[in-house]
């Protein structure tokens, strides 16, 4: 069997889908994407496929991963690793379909029967967040995540700190104690503010605090962890086991949150989970993406023993189901019950793509970029 061709589809709201084709009629799908940089990643995928992968046996996944990563003088980073990630997902999808088995069987088999998921809660005012959180809990979620702050200055006023803590406290107190709440700092605060906020939030029994500082400041995590009783999580903006190596060595992190479409795909996500296990660290993969990325992440979640919870990526209980469902031929694979998704037991990634809809939506001009935030004095703030 060999790879004969491929198609790339940029589709709303901000996703890039890859279809890898073979001479035996088996096709695999992947989601290589950096949000807001779809065209850049698309170029990287095209270069990798045209210069190396087309014409080769898709079943030699590890060899191809090594060639794509080590075959270039410049390695790593969000663009190249996301390109490799989507290709890797598609290769696993092909291999699973070839052997008529879900990817998790090829990775070692089930370590669980279902996968706990959490959903993000939007809103700036406490009343809005509480209303949305209650809706999600009523629909079955037992874990939620909310943003801690908007843009902040390096050192904020007591009023801003009080407002931030009070907002989170109101949400925590409005929900039953059986509902877990994670809080995402999104790297928007300095190390000084991170120390203050983690201390002030310590009595709220949060599930985790995500990205208390930006990844480039991870050397401060041990100090923050030393004065925090809340588990610390990070890793959404780290892209390989080499990026995570110093993080584990520092000992300040309790959960890692790699994204299967950014951190080298299924192959690398398994290795990261194994590294984390060896350091007594859990994994809670992020997935603010589409259905292919979620399916790929769920395949890994089914296998690894140190999973805590999976970012759902999109809400299955919205009043109007989101675009993720438009791209699936069978949406029942993501049926949701009591805070859990079932394992995906069909061959490959366990989903079937509605190719007609994907092709149709790919004709739409997708222009999504994250906003640029500024502080009151006009200086740039972290989004």
UniProtKB/TrEMBL annotation:
Keywords: Lyase, Magnesium, Metal-binding. This is Galactonate dehydratase. It comes from Haloarchaeobius iranensis. Residues 126-231 form the Mandelate racemase/muconate lactonizing enzyme C-terminal domain. One of its GO terms (biological process) is D-galactonate catabolic process. SMART domains: MR_MLE. GO terms for molecular function: galactonate dehydratase activity; metal ion binding. NCBIfam families: PRK14017.1. It holds the Pfam family MR_MLE_C. PROSITE patterns: MR_MLE_1. CDD domains: D-galactonate_dehydratase. InterPro entries: DgoD-like, Enolase-like_C_sf, Enolase-like_N, Enolase_C-like, Galactonate_deHydtase, Mandel_Rmase/mucon_lact_enz_CS, Mandelate_racemase_C, Mandelate_racemase_N_dom.
